[in-house]
Amino acid sequence: MIGIPPNDDELDLDAGEANEPASQQPVTEQEPEERPFLYEDAEQWLHGYALPRYLRRHGPSGHAWAPNWYEYPEAYSVITALWETWEQMRWDGPQQILVFYRDYFYPLMDRLTAQDGPFHAYDKVMHPELPEMLPIWDAPSGYFRSSV
Are 111 and 105 contacting, i.e. CB atoms less than 8 angstroms apart? Predict the structure, then answer.
């Protein structure tokens, strides 16, 4: 039986609102609300939050994955972006967490772990190296509009 991951991501939507006394000082400039991250980095988030909630069949007939995911530039970038997006959206309530899952988490994790995704060539026994980069040619000079 699969257990339910620990509830370390519960949101206290009423925290700090009902119990705080009204300020006696006139507000002249509102300071930005501090929103500390729950996880220290993308790796902690992946281990503590994402993967326990993304249980999929692994292997040739399931999802592709490499335990050294951090060495794959695409996976590193996407997982880091997912972590930072989740950290921001978790403060905006349960509806935003649903938006996170719908618009970010499921589409990107499904893409990352697809059989033709970045881990497509990973084989923990025979080929633990990264897949080759897609071929690319330099565009002709002046082809793209410049930002400078």
Answer: no
